[in-house]
């Protein structure tokens, strides 16, 4: 029996469907242990019809904060009393912070990726960036790239329409034309070398580990650094192809780590120092069976 839960224990959690494979409890419960905070973090499986009621119930139960994952990052906004400007622009909320009268929605995915990139000394500013995919995760990625001063973003997707929507929206937000939507097959039109490429599709995710959206090695010759937002497997086919062409690669585990850390900071009004962040990172790697 756990003896560390008592009358002053606070609850945080994750809302989504499915939730059983989440690593977020590892992030938040390790942080609470290290920072000696009496908070427990648990997953909540919520059905679509019950989302609004779940948020209202969570508030009444005095739940301090929530993460929100697939498929509710958009739908959840209807149940909030306020949405942070950046989350509204990205069109997705992944963190709810308790305020007077309800929850305020934030998006920590973009900053999670940003902090992960800073931690690995990956530069956005003045870089040419290729983003693969225009699904749920992609808009936060493209938004971040333009916000942080990318010279140009090529947004490649199987369905041009979906890439156009994100490109138009981000170009409008920043009054720019730096985002160019393209279909995947048009990659030979990219003339720049030494690009940063961010893989933001679900292709290559376990168990379909033998897939990458583009397999032609001539594409990978343009890439100096490749980031896959997938972290399972730890080395995706995309990463293998980048490395085969001489580039450096990173998976999505640090993005996951820092989006969680940013949420934890919002709930608790504190800043987690880098030493503790890296300790949580080691814990995540251990959980996934990744050495190093
Ligand atoms: P979401 O992230 O919105 O939940 P997803 O299924 O993870 O959805 O798909 C995200 C991205 O992966 C999309 O860009 C999708 O391309 P489309 O917009 O054309 O649907 C891309 N994607 C999924 N499967 C793909 C495949 N087999 N080949 C190429 N792209 C694929």
Which parts are unreliable, with pLDDT below 50 for 5 consecutive residues or more? none
Mean pLDDT: 97
**Small-molecule components bound:** 2'-monophosphoadenosine-5'-diphosphate
- Our measurement of the CA-to-CA distance between the termini, rounded to an integer number of angstroms, reads 33 Å
Number of helices: 10
The level of helicity is 25-40%
Report on this model:
The protein is an alpha/beta fold and 292 residues long. Helices cover 36% and strands 21% of the residues. The chain has 10 helices and 12 strands. It has helices at 24-34, 51-60, 85-90, 109-119, 138-147, 160-173, 217-220, 237-244, 253-268, 274-288; strands at 10-16, 39-45, 65-68, 82-83, 95-99, 102-106, 128-132, 152-157, 179-183, 195-199, 223-228, 248-250. The strands form 2 sheets. The protein has a 6-stranded mixed beta sheet, sandwiched between helices. The protein has a 6-stranded parallel beta sheet with strand order 9-8-7-10-11-12, sandwiched between helices. Helix 4 packs across helix 9 and helix 5 (138-147) packs parallel to helix 6 (160-173). The relative contact order is 0.13. The mean pLDDT is 97. Bound molecules: 2'-monophosphoadenosine-5'-diphosphate. 2'-monophosphoadenosine-5'-diphosphate binds next to loops.
